[in-house]
Amino acid sequence: MTAAASDPDCVFCKIIAGDLPCKKVYEDEELLAFHDIAPGAPVHFLILPKVHLESMLHVDEGHQALLGRILGLAPRLAMEQGCNPYPDGGFRIMVNTGLEGGQEVAHLHFHVMGGARSWKKGQAN
Ligand code: AMP
Ligand code: ZN
Description:
Blueprint (H helix, E strand, L loop, with lengths): L10 H7 L6 E4 L3 E5 L7 E7 L14 H17 L10 E4 L15 E5 L11
Antiparallel strand pairs: 1-2, 2-3, 3-5, 4-5
The chain binds adenosine monophosphate (AMP) and zinc ion (ZN).
């Protein structure tokens, strides 16, 4: 499935374009990471591809390297952002997909959540 490079109506595309602000965690040519505006954990940021790809159900074989890069980056950023060391610390990676999957923003994003626990298992945000 081909993804449009950008969707003018997409809030995350607007952030990527610099038209809306974010608290940036990381940026390179393909990826952007920023803090969730409504954090559900002491550390809560999102990693997303810059290309407008709606969800995990819009991913195909051509996106494997991109997804691999996101997963490869997540542990480093999680620790840089204050997640506690393994095994007592750690973090969660979560990708909500579709309405029944709890997805609110239709631009693929990986939640990275961690920090001292008061937040609940399975909580979306
Ligand atoms: P999801 O429910 O998986 O689609 O998650 C969307 C997430 O994006 C939620 O946790 C929101 O708090 C977060 N979010 C929405 N708008 C913004 C924004 N402008 N900046 C940062 N995070 C946002
Ligand atoms: Zn988008």
